[in-house]
Amino acid sequence: MSEEWGKNGFMPWKPPFPPVPPHPAQTFDFSVAEVLSPDGDPVGHLLVFTEPYARVAGRLWWKTLSDPYMTLEFWSSIHGEFDDAFLSTREDVDAAVEGLQRGEWQPSGQRATRTYLLRWLHIDDSRRVSTDVFGLDVAACSRSTPASRRRSRP
User: Fold this and answer.
1) Fewer Cβ close by (within 10 Å): the C or N end of the chain?
2) What confidence score (pLDDT) does residue 38 get?
3) Three-point CA angle 64, 86, 139, nearest 5°
4) Residue 125: other Cβ atoms inside 10 A
5) Are the CB atoms for 54 and 65 separated by under 8 Å?
6) What is the number of other CB atoms lying within 10 angstroms of the CB of residue 63?
7) For residue range 16-55, what is the model confidence (pLDDT) as tens digits?
8) Which residues is 48 bridged to in the sheet?
């Protein structure tokens, strides 16, 4: 019998989450960067989260999941002002990852007007800044399961 069939030969109500292929966004999960102005002056911090997502399709008990793809969530504190952004389309995520790899970040709503430079922090500094600035212990979050990783805004 197929692995997708549950006990007693019935289709499971909730199909298992498909395997997640490697994606360059995963290297930024729970990463903290110092945000710099174009002149190189520190103006704040950026915290990046990645999470796989799969669309649910089907009817009643015949549910299926699409191939998973990565989403990105950003928490930023620029000049003491908190903002968050969530990117869910593959095109937006891929474009944002290209920028992060170059050490650049464009806040949501300001795409055409401002690009900040990033200086990625080492793990100890990341933990300290994420706790001090965002009130989040990234060490505890990175050990949690994907289902329990939803965060609440500070």
Assistant:
1) N
2) 83
3) 90
4) 12
5) yes
6) 14
7) 788 888 888 888 888 899 999 888 899 999 999 999 988 8
8) 31, 74
Query: What number of residues does the chain have?
Result: 154
Query: Residue 8 is encoded by which pair of tokens?
Result: 């007693």
Domain boundaries, the chain: 22-136
Q: Are strands 116-120 and 31-36 parallel, antiparallel or unpaired?
A: antiparallel
- CA 142 vs. chain centroid, Å, equals 12
Q: Which residues contact 43 (CB under 8 A, 6 or more apart)?
A: 35, 36, 37, 78, 79, 116
pLDDT-derived band at 132 (thresholds 50, 70, 90) equals very high
CA neighbor of 138 nearest in space, from 146, 127, 124: 127
Q: Which residue has the tokens 């999941």?
A: 65
SS3 34: strand
Closest CA to 90 of 71, 108, 118: 71
Mean of pLDDT values over 138-154: 53
In 37-121, where do the E strands start and end?
42-53, 56-59, 62-65, 69-78, 81-87, 104-105, 116-120
Q: Is the predicted pLDDT of residue 1 greater than 50, yes or no?
A: no
